[in-house]
Design goal:
Length: about 190
């Protein structure tokens, strides 16, 4: 595994543990010689994960659309900075660069990034592992909602199992490494068009 993309907030949240776990994840990626691909900000949880990697001689690639370069306060000491035109290009580039994804706490943008790469996996556009680092139970309700989708017949259990969840960095990394993409009969076919 060469690079992992991390989706997370440009805010730090109300509890120091969110910053601390983000920093620890960056530190861990550097220790494993895995590059960090992230949203290029030097503030919030984004800044923490980058700092953790950079403080430990890790490779950090930031990807950001031009219009956010002022709002998200771009980190200027990255291994590589990629500036694109749109949010869609940002997500596509992060997907291209990443071998796996980890989701940390964040807001709407973090959820949108998570669900987009998850949908791409469900559609067979990639087979990369997607993990949630569920610090302080932050994503418990998302996990319950995903299970509700299965329970109500809107989501195949094999697709639900594409979401790897742990509150421990090492455990989550082990799940990412051992992940095998499910083979699910495609629901998109000519008879359903």
């Amino acid at each position: 595994m060469e690079n992992i993309a991390v989706f997370c907030g440009s805010s730090v949240g109300d509890k120091p543990l969110y910053y601390n776990i983000a920093y620890a994840l960056g530190e861990f990626l550097a220790s494993q010689k895995i590059g960090l691909v992230y949203g290029a900000a030097k503030i919030g949880i984004m800044g923490a994960v980058a700092k953790g990697a950079l403080d430990n001689a890790g490779k950090v690639i930031g990807v950001i659309p031009e219009f956010l370069t002022d709002k998200e306060v771009v980190h200027t000491n990255l291994s590589e900075l990629i500036v694109l035109d749109t949010m869609h290009q940002r997500k596509a580039k992060m997907n291209d660069l990443a071998d796996a994804f980890i989701v940390l706490p964040g807001g709407f943008g973090t959820l949108e990034e998570f669900f987009e790469v998850l949908t791409w996996a469900q559609l067979g556009l990639h087979s990369k592992p997607i993990g949630i680092l569920n610090t302080n139970g932050y994503y418990d309700h998302i996990s319950l909602m995903i299970q509700k989708m299965v329970d109500e017949g809107f989501l195949n259990i094999k697709n639900r199992n594409m979401v790897l969840i742990s509150d421990d960095i090492g455990d989550l990394f082990g799940k990412l490494i051992s992940y095998k993409a499910p083979v699910v009969k495609k629901w998109l076919n000519s008879s359903n068009s």
